[in-house]
Amino acid sequence: MYKVNYMKEHQGITLIALVVTLIVLLILAGVSIALLLGENGIIIQATQAKENSKEAEAREKLELTLLSAYNEKILNIKYNQNEFLDNIITNEIEGAEVKGDIAVVDGYAYELDRSVPKIGRFLGKSKDLIFPEVEATVELAADAKTAVITITAIEEKKGINKIEIWQAGEKLDEFTYDDLKEEIKKEYTVNQNGKYTIKAYANIMNSKTIDVEGIVATVKFEPNGNEEWKKEHTTKITIQETGDRVVNAKYQWTDSVVEPEEDTFTKNFKSGDTITENEVTGKYYLWTMIETKSGQKTKWRSEAFFFDNEGPNITSFTSEKYSEDGIILSATAQDVGLGTVKFEFYVDEVLKDTQTFTATTSKVTKNKTITGLTTGSHNCKVIVYDAKNNTSDKTITGTTKLYAWEKWEAVCQNRYIEERTVISSNVIHQNASNWTGSYRYTFDAKNGSFTLSATETHSGPGTYYTGGGRSVRQYIRNNVDHFGTYSVTTAKIEAVLNPNPTFSKGTTKYNTVTDESSTAYPNDGYQDGYYYVKTTSQ
What we know:
- The chain is mainly β.
- It is built from 3 helices and 38 strands.
- A hairpin with a 2-residue loop joins strand 23 (340-347) and strand 24 (350-360).
- Helix 2 crosses helix 3 (83-92).
- The termini are far apart.
């Protein structure tokens, strides 16, 4: 009986445990599904992290390419912020596209700030953007003197607000609209061959670049532009007349492809003339304006001529203290035209060094250590040459290391010197008396005093002295003949100030002198009763 009851009790416990286990498993499964598939679930977060990583890779590609474009902007005169920049992006990044001011890299769209260039803002995935539709066709005029560009643009959601026409990196014209959502058709007449970029603006911008070819030039330039950097360029201009005879022809040089105003043309020419220019620097175009008998005026432009009539750009010129008699000069220069070839360093208008090298358009830095100078400040100059001897110069003040001075008690050991003056010379006759005096003395050059010694009495020839202190008398007695006749020369020896005394440092040091200069004190160090000692240079 007991055994049966025991089995029934345990079967009930087993069923309850099973139900509880199933409930716990269902709860755990629900939590796991939420963690995996919820709004902030692991799968969603992993997908977003992957997406962020891909976008960062795309951004890095574009940033590196724009850095390369910035270098081209600085160094390459052919650079422009339109098709030149577009070509850099599409050539350096595989699969990249440029639509107006938007670069698409790996499916991600970035707005471009072309003026720098740099990334303006991230726009998201390109597939989600709505670009204006823009198309352009070209029709050459019957006389081949002009061509008409027909522009078609539409953006049905936001509408078109502006259309611009660009050539060679410069804006030629623009037309504005009030967010027009209907199709826009615009005709634009040009009289020059080349690439034209049509930009249509809505919420974002899109562009279309077309080639215009076949326009017959009314003016022929030979050569038509020259990309070789020179101080001077010449070109022959030939007017190709039609039935309407040319009655006036003028020209001017400008550094822009934007058409000049009529009143800026001041120089006349005739067909067959050779035009020369040699006073400008940079990329310049020769513009002509032809007026016919009927009154029609037409302007024509050459391709670019590259001029260099300026010396290299000196970006830095510095002087560094080297020693008490030396400085280090350093100069950096660049000439993006003809190239830099030589540096000359001058100090106080004296040429100290010349460094020549093969012409280069890259930045060049040259240094020179110059010694043998006087301590102090000097006028320093660098002259930099390009390949056609155009020069630039820069002047600075350079300073050597300077002496610091200490002030000491002055000691002079040779303040006085002896000065001998003959007073008289006479003859003492026979049987002259004996003489008594000192035949030796010492002179103290520091205090200017005489001290006599060795006093004796003598007869006959000899030299003896009397006196002492600041002066002594000298007597020189010579035997003239055998009869005892003598000649006596009398002279005065005095202590006088030494005109070229020398001084040395004593034992007492006074306050430290703050002046720092090699010329603040005399070369011997003595001035105004003190002795000055040069110490560590600065």
